[in-house]
Task: inverse folding
């Protein structure tokens, strides 16, 4: 997948989040959660899109798409330590 295609997919997901979810939570001043957390959300979305594209190219998944069991020690989304106080960093498996 080239960079432009990846960026277009990420932008598509971000637009959908903006349309359907930004008003669900707001700051006391009325700013939407997506506006406040745009950078970490965009990074997480980019990571998820990249991993889904890789998964769709994986031969066992391509032959039989569907849910996969994760290992007991794995989580789907984990919170990483970050030096920034404003953003949370997530790892997607």
Result:
């Amino acid at each position: 997948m080239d960079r432009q295609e990846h960026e277009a997919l990420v932008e598509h997901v971000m637009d959908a989040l903006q349309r359907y979810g930004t008003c669900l939570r707001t700051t006391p001043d009325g700013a939407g959660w997506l506006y406040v957390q745009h950078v970490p959300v965009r990074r997480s979305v980019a990571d998820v899109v990249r991993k889904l594209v890789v998964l769709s190219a994986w031969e066992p998944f391509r032959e039989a798409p569907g849910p996969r069991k994760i290992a007991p020690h794995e989580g789907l989304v984990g919170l990483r330590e970050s030096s920034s106080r404003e953003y949370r960093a997530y790892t997607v498996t």
The beta strands are 77-80, 89-92. The mean pLDDT is 80. The CA atoms of residues 1 and 36 lie 30 Å apart.
